[in-house]
Amino acid sequence: MDRLLNGLAYLAAIVGVLYALFSYARFPENEDARRPPVSYAEQAPDVHAPPVDLSEPAFTIQIPKKEASIGTAFAISGGWWLTARHVADGCDAIGLVLGPRKGIRAQQVVLHPNADVALMSVHLNPEPFALFKEDLQQGQDGFAIGYPQGSPGGVYAQLMGRGRMKMRGRYQTDEPVRTWAERKRAPNSLPSLGGLSGGPMLNERGEVIGVLVAETMRRGRVYTSDLTSIRWLLEQASVFPNPYAPLFPLAADNFVGQGDTLREDFRITQVFCDVKQPSRRRRL
What we know:
Elements: E1 8-10, H1 17-21, H2 31-34, E2 38-40, E3 58-63, E4 69-77, E5 80-83, H3 85-88, E6 93-99, E7 102-105, E8 108-111, E9 118-121, E10 130-131, E11 141-146, E12 153-169, E13 173-186, E14 200-202, E15 207-216, E16 221-225, H4 227-236, H5 255-264, E17 268-274
Parallel strand pairs: 2-8, 3-12, 10-15
Antiparallel strand pairs: 1-15, 4-5, 4-17, 5-9, 6-7, 6-17, 8-9, 11-12, 11-14, 12-13, 13-16, 14-15, 15-16
């Protein structure tokens, strides 16, 4: 039987009043013009998606109806950006925040069919991140950087092990994830990490080792997509990370400052998702 963790929340972007404060861009009235093409990464007949180990401890997240929201994304290769699927799925328009009331719209969105990972194509191509090529080790450090609560911030955590995340609601997935014990968050006053969805989990050399997808607030746990899911999506979308992308040191005492630099260089950026609201005009 699935274990439903108390206090579990997917790191969805924050909605409502906060989104109104971050209304960065205007979009054309023509719905077809504003909605980016969305596709699912499709595997060739002789290619199989990463298997899911059904013996791993599982938890279930109910995905609510999509609303206008914000999240995090990061550059991975040639104008392609990685984020969480629950951030990019269901948007009438989606793009990156470049400043107050200034944004750039995504041209295309590619969704993983069975994991909380998505790609966005944007006409913005900063220095991408390197992708870790090996397997992760229990106890290793991880540094998540992005926009929790809609503001710059991040989390330092240590890897505990593997798990399974099942999403139910507007779509259904069953995927392997990694479980991390939170050690430090910045700023310390953060009540929740909502808005950090889609942000990178980086190792001590600045390599991507996961995408932030969920948190357990009461237990101090965060969850990232498994590297197998990320690699599979990139391969099927023919997106190839730069093997010579620059590395940089990360540690518990410097990840806050390094995060500021990465955001200033637009390597990590806030995502805005616009969802059309039904007309309030009454029919006569």
